[in-house]
Amino acid sequence: MTEKLYYQDPYLFSFTATVVSCTSAGDGYAVELDRTAFFPEEGGQYADTGLLSGIPVTDVKEKGGVILHTLPSPLSVGAAVIGQVNATERLRKMQNHTGEHIVSGLFHSLYGLTNVGFHLGHDDVTVDLNGELSREDLCRVEHLANEAIWKNLPVRAEFPSPEVLATLDYRSKLELTENVRIVTIPGYDVCACCAPHVAYTGEVGQIKLLDFARYKGGVRIHMLCGMDALADYHARYVATAAISAKLTAPQGEVAEAVERLAAELLEKKAQIARLQDALAAELLRALPDGDAPALFFENRLDTPARRALVNGAAAKRPLAALFAGDDESGYAFLIGSNAIDLRPFAKAMTAALGGKGGGSATMVQGTLTAKRADIEEYWN
Ligand SMILES: [Zn+2]
User: Fold this and answer.
1) Whole-model pTM over 0.90
2) Are 295 and 280 spatial neighbours (Cβ–Cβ below 8 Å)?
C-alpha cells in the first residue's frame, strides 16, 4: 500500500520518498514509491503531472492501494527521490472539484437530483444529473453555489468510524462500511470522495454554470470554477469587446446589433437577387431569335440568374451556352437546349477543350481549362 500524502495535506506539492519498485510498462516504467503526493486518475479526474527527481511523471494510476507513476526512464529501487506535483494544475482541479461538490450538493438538496457522472478534463468540466432542470434552476443553483464561496466555509475530509458512518446521510454512498472518506461542506454537501479538495470554499473563487443539455435521460451541465472561470470570462470579454467595436454597439447590446445586421443582410440579398433577375432579363432581351448558338461570356451573374438566362436563350436558339471565368483559372459552363441531346455534345466538347461536366439531355454544366479564344473557335 502506498502512503497517500495528499490525504494528509492536499497542498503538499513537494515531497521526498523511496522507490519501492520499478518495472517496465509499455514505452516507459511504472514506479512505486513508499509514499506519494501524486493523485492518480480517479473519480472522473485525470492524473496529476509533475516530476520525480527531475523525470516527468506522465500518468498516475492506483491498483489495489498501490499507486504507480508512469515515467519515461527508470529509477533505482531503494533510491531516495524528490517528487514535485504540478501545483497550478492540481489547484485548478481542486477548485473545480470542490465547486462540483457544492453544485451537486445543492441540486441534491433542492431538487432531489443525483450526480451520476463527473468529468474533469483539461479544458472542460461536466456534471451529469439524473433528472430534468430548467434554465431558472441552473441560475438559482449558480447563485447559491457562489454564496457558499462568499461564506468561506471549511471543507472537511475525514474517515468516520463504522458506527458514525452508519448514522450519516451522504451522497455517493458506498457498500463499504470502513475506510470511507467523507467530505463535508457544512450546509451544502456531505459526500464520500477520495480526491483532494481546497481547505475553504473561498478558494474555489467562483462557480459558473455555463450550459446544460439533455443527456442519457437526465442533463449534462458544463461548469467552470476558479482560475478556469476567470480565464473563460477573460476570453469571452475579449471576444465580446471585439464584436462590440466592429458593430459600434455597446457590449450589452451586441445580440440586438447582430440581429439588425442579419435583417439588413437578408434585405441586401433580396435586392441583389432582383438585380440579378433584371440583368439576366436585359441580356435575354438583347438576344435576337435565330439558328446560331447563343454564346455568353458573362461573369456578373449568380447561379439562378445564369440558369434563367440559359433557359430563356434556349427558347430563342437551338443551343445556348454561358461561360463564366477567365483564361487563367478556366471557365465554368452552363449549356441549355431544347433541340439536341446535350450529354454526348458535352462529352465531345470537354474532350476537345479539356474539362469535365455532365447533366441532363436539356441542360449540362461543368468546367473547361481552355482559353476563351479556343472556346469561341470551337463554337463557331
Ligand atoms: Zn471530492
Assistant:
1) no
2) no
